[in-house]
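=== Structural record ===
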Amino acid sequence: MDAKALAATALLVAVCPAIAVSATYKTPNFVVTADSQQFAEQVGKAAEIYRHELAISWLGEPLPGNWGQPCPITCKTGRIGAGGATTFTFNNGEVFGWKMDIQGSEERILDSVLPHEVSHMIFACHFRCPLPRWADEGAATLVEHESERMRQTRLLNQVIKTSKRIPLSQLLSIKEYPRDMQDVLTLYAEGYSLADYLVQQKGEEGRAVFLAFLGDALHGGWERAFKKHYDISDVSLIEKDWTGWVMAGSPNIKPADKTLVAANDTKADPRREPEETTFRGQSTQQGYSPLPKLARQPRLERTSVAELTAPQPRSMSVATAETPQLTEVPQEPVSVHPARPTTDPPKSKWQFPWSKDSEETTSPPQSGFTNPKATAGSFFDFSR
C-alpha cells in the first residue's frame, strides 16, 4: 500500500468513530445533535417542554405555534465546563436564524444550561429586540437549578461591599458584555439578584410585571418604568433597598407588605452558602483563567422527563404584532459571550427548578403557525 493510501486509511479510521457516535433527534422546533441517540432525544424533548412551559411561566400562554425553522442544538458532553451559546437575528420585528451550542455534563445541560438558553429565546420572541444585559441574563438565570442560583448569590456577596461592584445606574445602562472577566461575572450575579428581587416584589404576578417593566423601560426610560411598576423612581433609593436585601441574605420577600421572610432561618431560606465546591471560570477559548472555587449545593432529585411539571400560568396578555415581510438579513458580526466552566457535578437525578411537584406534563400541543419575530444576539451562559 502506497503512502497516499495509508494516509487515506488513517484519516478514515480517525473520522469514522466520530461519525459513528453522533446522533440526531428532531422535534418541531429543535434539531439536536449529541454523542448518543438517548441523550439527543432527552435534550430534544426537554427543549420542547422548556419552550412550552417557560413561555407559560413568563408570558401567561405558550408561544403561538412553531418557529419557521427549527433551532439546531449541538451538545458536547463530558467532564468539561458547562455553558452554552445561542445566536439569532432580529430584523424588521422578526427573530430567526436560531443556533444553540451547549456543553457540560448531561445533568448540568438538562437542569441549567438548556433552560437558560431557551429563556433567551422566549424573551427574544416576546420583545423582538435585544434586552439590557443584566435583565436578559438575570431573568434567564432565575430558571436555573437552585445550586446554580445559590452560587450567583454567593458571588454577589463577595463583591457587594467592594469596588468590584457595578453601581446600579451603570448596570442598567450596560448593553454589551464587559471586556473584563470579573466584570462579566459581577454583571451576571447582580443581574440575577436584581431580577430576583424585582420579581419577588409582586408575588404571583412578579414575572408578568417584570416583563412589562422591561418593555416600558425600553421605550420610556428606567425611572419612569420603576415608578409605574414598583412605585419608586429614584434609582439611588432602589439601589439602597436592593443592597439592604442582599446584605440581609437575599431572603424571600412577602409581597403584601414587602417584609423579608426568615432572614436568619436557613431551613426557610435555602439560598445559603452550600457545602461542596466547584470551579467557576471562563472558556479557555477566550483566554481567561479559572476563578477561585465557589461553593455549591447538591442537586435535588427528579426521576425522568415524563415527571416534569409545569408552572402555573400568569395573568398576562401577550403582546402581539403583525408579522412583517422579511428583508435581506444584515450581515452583522455576532458576538458570543463566554461560558463559565465548572467541574463535573455529582451524579444525581434532575428536575426543573421552576416546576411544581403535583402535576404531570405532556408534550406541548403543536400547530402549523410559524412565528418568526426577531436579530443578532448571542447569549452564552455565564452562570454555570
